[in-house]
Amino acid sequence: MSDDVRYAAFLRAVNLGGKRKLPMALVREVLPAELGYAPVRTHIASGNILFGVPAGSSAAGRQAEPPEGTDEAAARHAAAIEEVLGRAAGFEVPTVVLTGAALAQVLAEEPYDPPVAKHVNVGLVQGTITAQLRARAEAIEAKAVAGEGVSVGERAIYLHVPHSIHGSKLAAAYGRAAPEATARNLATMRTMAQLLAEL
Fold it and tell me: pTM score > 0.85 for this model?
């Protein structure tokens, strides 16, 4: 492997029910052209991106501040992706970018044992969970019915809904309590970690 640094990016609320359309082919075209990322790969249409920042490239530059592979660099890349994809799509594209270490931490902190991947939704934020968001997320536990649960890690909120998420009062409360979080199911998060390791 080279000195390139690899990241995983998660776009919020794109390609949902025919709304906020953002073709992944456009993402794969725009990010290398505008930001110098390489390689760029996408996984399914919901806005999951894996990208590399070639060592010595302008994407890695800005006087190497902050250093690549840090949370600060991930936040800088998130802002850059939001800007270029927002221009390309014609609407805001909130983005969370994780380093490989951050993604591994999100998966390691998943609390349900044994988890059924399709029943666990992971709410991601840029950086770490704030005290305010933690308090809002923990406050919705009262909405849970048997088998449901919400847990807050350092970097993510974990929502366990073993039946339909669409009929869950807990899931609805979560959406109101954590509007800034970008959600993916646990299966997608595991796949993204595997794809990032292979990139």
Answer: yes
